[in-house]
Amino acid sequence: MLTSHRGTILDTSTFQLTREQLTAKDPPVNTCSLTDRMKVKMMILLFQILAISTLRSDSAYVPDRYIQENVALRGKATQSAQLRGQYDAFAHASNAIDGNRDSNYHHGSCSHTEGANPWWRVDLLQVYTIASVTITNRGDCCGERISGARILIGNSLESNGINNPQCSMIGIMTAGETRTFRCSHPMTGRYVTVYLPKTDYLHLCEVEVNALLPFN
Fold it and tell me: Is the CB of residue 115 less than 8 Å from the CB of residue 80?
C-alpha cells in the first residue's frame, strides 16, 4: 500500500499473481497422469470462482489504481434544522466537514439538529464514486442517539435527499467513536445524507466521504 499527500493509494496489483496462476498452462503430458491434469483443472476453476467472488465483494475491486480521498472537505453542508438555545453557536452543519474529529460538542466541531426525523447532508458539488463514509460520533454525551441513522448517496434532492439509495445503516456507536461504513458496492452521487428516522437529535462530529479518484 502506498500513500500520498492526497490520500491512500490502493493498488490492485496484489491480484496479478493470482491471475497469472489462474491462466497457467496445463502441465506437460509426460509429467503427470490424466487424473492429475483433471485435478489441476478443477483447482484452477475453484481458484477462479474464489477470485471473482473476492474481487466483487471487496470495496477496492476497481481494476486500476486509484486514490481514496475524503471529498467532503470540498463540499457544502446543510441540515434539517439547527439547535436553538444557549449552545446553538456550536451546532452549524459545516462543523461536521471541517476535518476535525474532536468529539466534544462544546469545542465547536460538531453539528447538531433540532426537531423530529432530522437529517444532515453534504453537497459534494459534483458526482463522485464513493466507497465508504466515515462517521465520528459525539463523545461528551448522548452517543446512543445516532443509532438507527441511515447513510444515503445519490443525485436527488427529493425529500431532502432521504429517498436516495442507502449505502449503510448506523447501528450502535459508542460515544466519541469513529467508524467507517462501507457501501455494499461503490456508489455514485453528488449528495450524501445522514437521516435519523425518529424523534431525536442528530449530532455529527465529523463526516468523511471516501471517494475513489484515479491515480495519475
Answer: yes
